[in-house]
Design goal:
It contains 15 helices and six strands. It is mainly alpha-helical. The longest helix has 21 residues.
Amino acid sequence: MEENNLKSKVLDSFLKLKRYCERENFKGWDPYDGLNSKVFQALPIKQWDLARLAWIQGFKRSPINFRKLLLVPKMHNAKGIGLFLSGYCNLYELAEQGNKDFGTKKEILVKINELANLLKELKDNNFSGACWGYNFDWQSRRLFLFPAFTPTVVATAFCVDALFKAYEITKDESIKNLALSSAKFVINDLNRTPHNSGFLFSYSSHNGNNTVFNASLLGAKILSLCYKYSGDENYKTIAEQAIKTVCESQSKDGAWVYGLLNTQLWIDSFHTGYNLDAISVYQECTGDNQFKEYLKMGFTYYIKNFFEKNGTPKYYNNKTYPIDIHCPGQLFVTLSKTNNFALFQDLASKVFDWTVRNMQSSKGYFYYQLKKGISSKISYMRWSNAFMFNAMTYFIKENEKL
């Protein structure tokens, strides 16, 4: 795609998404929010785990959106707000460089403060430090149930990353201190599962999902960022232990499975991207490059196994469908975080073009997944739109450098 045509297409696509999200005030539905249905909550079967699971999966898999009919409200989601905040921080950087396509510095700063304040309101106050969860009850198979707003290391990591970026712009000490306090949540409230020479951080403070590699690395990412802004050596030491554990679990070809359980042995695109990001952030924040070979192997595997030559993003290493919107979006972030964007600009442009043509509505929002058969084209604010909003700002920012 010619440079001018690409820039025009990117600008048009992103502004459509930006206008859509701002009109909705960053509120929306989620693939997993079925249990927020006021109809379901009034039924006696809400206490039955199989009924909850069937209800969640029915909402998630259906190409028809029953949420209005069954009274599921549009809500703010903390991870989504963190992604939007991160994206607006990237837009502020562009505005500082003279790019006024997305608003003036003053206009963007208003959004940054608005979203940072919203994260302050959404944080959970019942733990050792700042932490965030999802705005819906979430059940994984019949293994465990996380009540709405249960803090998770995943949601918290995205919020913390965004808050530190907002601090760099606003110099608001309350924003920095809020983000710094998250280290206490990671250290004191997350469970640790012994593995290899170290341990894995749990997904949440609740038991369940204690053996997920990307979740443990996101805990290390939080500690790495907090080390950068505090100088606390304990944060660096614990982050190093967690990263070493996951690196020791890497396959010889550079791949990581999702987790340790027999039901977690798949290898997928965007969680691999999360792993690479977390290790990159650790290196950048600490200056410790002992894991650079693992990072290099993992990145090579990621690029070779999850993207077709024509720009089609794959979900798994061994099959393409369902194509999740996270798969193309995470590419732009990972290329930026690992300083590989210039080398793979052509791939990024092809993936971007494919994604806009196949997964963006004329109304501006992005689809959740494409399947071989009937796909869901429901607008999901956290999963699809916030994720792509942030990802596209990385794509735009990196292209401006070239």
